[in-house]
TrEMBL record:
Superkingdom of origin: Eukaryota
GO cellular component terms listed in the entry, alphabetical order: peroxisome
Keyword Transferase: yes
Domain named Aminotransferase class V: residues: 31-342
SUPFAM superfamilies per UniProt: PLP-dependent transferases (SSF53383)
Its EC number(s): 2.6.1.44
GO molecular function, one term: alanine-glyoxylate transaminase activity
Name of this protein: alanine--glyoxylate transaminase
Organism field: Coemansia reversa (strain ATCC 12441 / NRRL 1564)
Keyword Transferase belongs to the record: yes
Length: 399
């Protein structure tokens, strides 16, 4: 088994939450390079490569990446501030905590939000989305590809197809923070207009970079605004010349870029693209299937209510009635694995979440196997395990 990673000499637990995720040694080294001017040609080359490689990762020829210091949430602000004007309609497809946050962000910038909420563990039926698209004109429709609170995978292609059919001028915005580079997404082919993501999940590098890719159609919507962009830092009119300049390997200043984080992201993108995106997606699908098989073996249920609704980047698992996340997580940590508790309001203690994206999925490093072993043992220590056979299958709590 290859352990081509700093974890071969690990004296720390594996970070198996749904992001930040484990990083390769080369990414860690790139993140600790000495001070480098943002005007240095070495940095311009790295920045230019990041912009080009992101296009390949999301599957676009002419989409415009924005690579800006910040976290995933900054991408919400970028989208809302640049593409929505006061009073315009936005349709938010919410599958949980992050869908709700995105709706809140849109409202912050003056959008009239209609929120289609799925039942927990499910996604909105396409017929319901089609009906909403026929009922009103929306400037944007947003879809959270994987809502990290539930591990539910949205049908981005299905949504984009509906938009094409019922409201082709509406922009399709995908929150891919917990999905990009793990879940299939074909930006140009599916007709996506904005993907919002971040450096610290399946992109495999440290937290600190907000990544957004915008279609030319989205940029033309920005150009046609009647009102000023109501924000300073996130105004794409300021960033567009910066991105174009660095892509041409020429430095240009608006605000100081996160130099080391960009070196690290460039390194992780090189590692991702050393394989094909198809292989990267397949590796995540196979890893997620192994995790789901283990959940079955533990006689537990995923929060996502059907296999086709389960994310390939992470899994949320209901605990038996008798065990709380706060009981399980320390026992996991004692076994060298950090997992996450739940974040669904009122149900947070009833489930736990595992991240299995990035190098945990694409490399033969044993991280997922070690995690699954640790979960089985910790469950058993909590009284579930042999006991599970006697007490029967756990059922998801009523929501
Ligand atoms: C789906 C989704 N959207 C948005 C965010 C916000 O990203 P960040 O925490 O990097 O600001 C997260 C964070 O986990 C997320 O999972």
């Amino acid at each position: 088994m290859s352990t081509s990673n700093n974890n071969s000499e690990r004296s720390r637990p594996l970070c198996m939450i749904p992001g930040p995720v484990e990083m390769s040694d080369t990414v860690l080294k790139a993140n600790s390079t000495p001070a480098t001017a943002h005007t240095d040609p070495v940095f311009s080359e790295a920045f230019g490569q990041v912009i080009e490689k992101l296009r390949t990762v999301v599957g676009t020829k002419d989409g415009q990446p924005f690579v800006i210091a910040g976290s995933g949430t900054l991408g919400w602000d970028q989208t809302a501030a640049n593409l929505v004007e006061e009073g315009e309609n936005v349709l938010v497809l919410s599958n949980g905590y992050f869908g709700e946050g995105l709706a809140d962000c849109m409202e912050t910038y003056g959008a009239q939000v209609t929120c289609l909420r799925a039942e927990p563990g499910k996604r909105q039926p396409l017929a319901e989305i089609a009906q909403a698209l026929r009922a009103k004109k929306y400037k944007l429709v947003t879809v959270t590809q994987v809502d990290t609170s539930t591990g539910v995978l949205a049908d981005v292609k299905g949504v984009a197809d509906l938009v094409k059919e019922h409201s082709p001028e509406t922009l399709v915005v995908v929150d891919g923070v917990c999905a990009t580079a793990a879940e299939r997404l074909y930006f140009d082919q599916w007709g996506v207009d904005v993907v919002v993501t971040a450096s610290q999940k399946a992109l495999g590098s440290p937290p600190g970079i907000s990544v957004v890719v915008a279609s030319q159609k989205a940029l033309s919507v920005l150009a046609a605004r009647k009102t000023r962009v109501p924000a300073y830092y996130v105004n794409w009119n300021r960033w567009l010349p910066i991105m174009k300049s660095y892509e041409a390997r020429a430095p240009k200043y608006f605000a100081t870029p996160c130099v080391q984080a960009i070196f690290a992201l460039n390194t992780s993108l090189t590692e991702i693209l050393s394989s094909s995106m198809e292989k990267v997606f397949a590796a995540h699908e196979q890893t997620a299937a192994r995790v789901r098989a283990a959940v079955n073996k533990w006689e537990l249920s995923t929060v996502a209510t059907a296999p086709e609704l389960c994310s390939n980047a992470m899994t949320a698992v209901w605990l038996p009635e008798t065990i709380k996340a706060a009981d399980l997580l320390p026992k996991l940590k004692a076994r060298g694995v950090v997992a996450a508790g739940g974040i669904l309001s009122g149900k947070a203690h009833r489930y736990f979440r595992l991240g299995h994206m990035g190098i945990s999925a694409t490399r033969d490093n044993g991280f997922v196997d070690a995690t699954l072993r640790a979960v089985a043992e910790a469950l058993e220590e909590c009284g579930h395990g042999a006991a599970a056979a006697a007490t029967g299958r756990s059922s998801p709590p009523r929501l």
